[in-house]
Every structure is written in C-alpha cells, then in structure tokens.
Amino acid sequence: MFVPKKSKYKKVFKGRIKGNAKGGSTLSFGDYGLKAMEVGKVQSKHIETARRVISRTLKRSGKVWIRIFPDTPVSKKPADVRMGKGKGSIEFWVFKAKPGRVLFEISSDVPMHLARLALEKATAKLPMKCKFISNHN
Asked: By residue range, what is the domain housing residue 59?
C-alpha cells in the first residue's frame, strides 16, 4: 500500500476538487497511458489493485509507471460513536484526481492491443471514468 513517510499536517480538511489537471496531463515515460476523465479520489488500495491487474495482464513484460501518489489523509470516526470529541483517526490515504491527469503509463515494449486490454481492466478497478491514450495517434 502507498502511504507517505511524513506529512506536514496529520489531518486535513475535505475540500473540493474543481477544474482540470494543471500538470501531468501528457505521457512522459511510456507510449501508452490511462487518463482520468472525471474527478475522483483514488485510494492507495485502488492504485495497488490496478497495478496488479496491469502487471498480470502484461505477464510482467514491459514497464509500468504509476504517475500518482496518495498524499491526502482521510479520517473516519469509528462505528457507534456519538458526535463530537474531535476529528476521527486516519483511515486511508487518497490522491485527488482531476480530469486530464495521467494515472498509469506502459512502455512501448508491449503490443498496443495488450496495453489497451491491461489498462481497460485497470479502469474497472478505479473509482472514475478513464480513457486509454497513446503516442501513436
């Protein structure tokens, strides 16, 4: 699971995710990628399951880059606890994805149809709509 080693603040406000991605919207390392099409909070477990699906579909050939990291803590109060008494403890970490952000990349060692299949399977594991992109358009 992806968890930051340190963070400046222990707990943060919820906030809102507005607008499109400012950076990270183009392919940098590989030739195929998965781009977010809508707003979503990607948990560390989503990233890990998507990574596993991609590597298993590619049969560990080619290289996979994870372009996101969950750096925002999400707190939650336990069940059957009354209101008040402070904010709950941290349950998990999320990455706040905006539309246009590249989430995963795959190297060009892999055939395009296999890369598309792997990234479409990974899309099913993520909490938002994504699309397949490539440098070969």
From this structure: 32-76+88-134
